[in-house]
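Table S5 (text form). Sequence records supplied for joint modeling of the two-component complex.
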Amino acid sequence: MNVLKLRDTHEFIPGAMKRTFLVENSPYFKIISFNLDAGVTFPVHSHDLDGEVSIQVIDGEGAFLGEGDTEIFAQQGDILISQIREPHGVRAKTQMRILVVIAPPI
Amino acid sequence: MNVLKLRDTHEFIPGAMKRTFLVENSPYFKIISFNLDAGVTFPVHSHDLDGEVSIQVIDGEGAFLGEGDTEIFAQQGDILISQIREPHGVRAKTQMRILVVIAPPI
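The corresponding structure-token record, covering 212 residues in total, follows.
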């Protein structure tokens, strides 16, 4: 039993994305915090693996990105659920914090 | 690709716990929103199964509960990581929203 604190990973890097692994060694899921500075894009990507990912907006707003030109407005409290093999990404309009859960971990 | 909105599950039931399944049919994880009215306890429980659970405080404050008298202050942005077979629970001091991810789903 372990308690993680999102407020311990509040840093932003100007013009870039700050990544912090919160749960890294579990056989069941990986949990990662990403802080995107305003204007930063987490590029659309996918992996040819079975599994699912959730991307929760903790703070800020922007868009979830998908295949082609897919773009879905995203704000605090929105959670994207995507297969790992489906293209997915995020673009930050404001500074944006997202929490990503990947199961199984890859 | 599907977007869930935590603000769509903001209801509280006086003196009780309101549960909403956000991701229910994935083979990889289950995601559930629980809204606990002030003073409500999500009793300590465990299952004799392999897997891990994360319990994220979305709003409000209270305590994460564990084996015996274990009690850890919990507020917005805190995430309890526990094995499914470890005893875990939550007690709400104020109205409290938690987001639970269980992998694999049980």
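Note: The interface with chain A takes residues 1-7, 22-23, 26, 28-29, 31, 50-52, 54, 56, 58, 64, 66, 70, 72, 74, 77-83, 86, 88, 99, 101, 103-104 of chain B (CB under 8 Å).
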